[in-house]
Protein: Terminase large subunit
Organism: Jiella pelagia
Amino acid sequence: MEAGSLPPWLERVAADDNYAWAIGAWRRAAASDGAWFDHAKADAVVARWPRIFRLTDDRFRGKAFKLLAWQEITVRLLVGWKIPIEIIDAETHEPSVAHVRLFRRLDLWIPRKNGKSEFLAALGVLFFVLEKVPGGQGFVFGRNEDQGKVPFRKMQAIIEVANGLLEDRAGNVRIILNKKSIFVRETGALCELLTGKPDGKHGRSPTVILGDEIHEWVSRELSDTLRQGTGSRLQPIELYASTAGRKASRVGWEWYQESVGIMAGDIDDARTLVVHFAIGEEDDWTDETVWRRANPSLGLTPTLDYLRSEFRKAKGRPVQEALFQCYHLNRWVDQVGGWLPKSKWRACSSDPDRPVWQTAYADMAAKRRRCFGALDVSATRDITALVWLFEPEEDSKIWTLVPRFWIPEATLDERAREDRRVNWKKWVDDGALETTPGDSVDQNFVGEAIKRGFGTFDVEAIGFDPWNARKLVTDLETDNLDIERFVEMRQGTPTLGEPTKEFERMVFAGEIDHGGHPVLAWMAGHAQVRFDANLNYVPAKAGSLDKIDGIVASVMALGLSMNVEIEPPSVYEQRGILEIEI
């Protein structure tokens, strides 16, 4: 067979666009000077694979690891392509030629639940254990140690259940598995779990480097440091895998763009094999045939039933739709708009055709239901928001939102002229928006509103972002307000991630009553969310088309309620028993 012609196992997928990465990799390898394909080696590895390797999880545990088409192609390409390199003989110091693996790096981009971790770990075992490199060094890592544990423990599990790896036929231990290391006694090779940080990682000489979930990495320094240590090895290999993530994640997105450039031939790198399964930018993500193209292991894992279930949960919810495409179709996501559809938001009112918000404050005062407050203090000329969130009455799931908003009076005419999308002056006339004298929000007015709330409602706690609110809270402390009920809440993912998801769920479930407040509805209409590296999300102030302070404050208040155990009233409070001093 000529080097450039396709072998039968590639001919079978040559017409399938989903395997363009494989055909392209073969063509680029064949064009490399002196490269040749070791068919016998590739055939032997593929034949021995299910005889040695066993699957490790759930219904698959202990069953032979039979390679799927995409996995078989990947293995054949990695082990089959060879290239001659010049070396100096260690004994004679004469020039010589060694034939080594052409591919020194694997970039595997594939949706979740397609057996990525199992396959990556098995490749790690193949190159670290079965190649029997004396004094070999392997390193496994992720964004942090916990993330690196996933493929590392998978490698250990594969070694434990494999046929003839952990012990020889006489029962002698061949491989010692420790908490953070794998030691091969025959070769003296050591594979270690790393923390994910580059500190103290210099001076290593890796034969195998295995890194998982690139899309979450905050730095490429560790992978670069380890790669630079491979210079003394004849055929080291780097094994990397990931699903898609957010485009704002610089390391992951840039690595992905590099992989795409290699596949397209825009980047001259014949030593990297890119395996890529994802939907295209123009593909209809709701089409099940598209799901099949992006998930080459579909049916084995994940099942079609599982994807259909996840699709139903996501449909009609913009953020969940984006996450479905990211996790299950390998499409990178950006900031998501249309977070809270207008139809869903409008339905979250006890009477959508009547301004219930105008009487909500008095209604809550009369019922004196327990509530959680949140304050989002603006920069001097923007909107300041104060929100009270009241827990449901007995036998109800409906939480009630009562917001208040302030802007500087001197900016009202300017806003009305420059932004005709909303009727700012009507909001003021109706009482939905309040003004304070001057050209900046007078925090004394906000402070008085907070004190009034404490005197009117049963306030459990009130959250505030210390940025811009520190002076206001300090002033309230001098007014003998119970300052212990004020809780600092930073507006990042650790604080607001879970409350944001819960707020979204409650809006879609109709478990919030905002009374149709027009300012809050305006904010909800253009609120967007931003993702962190783990694809958790929070309201995006900077990315939204306009101010969303009321939505942010609502999420903050909900976050307080989620962190405080809600207890029923004391039986003595219900019966009105008087306290008697003894």
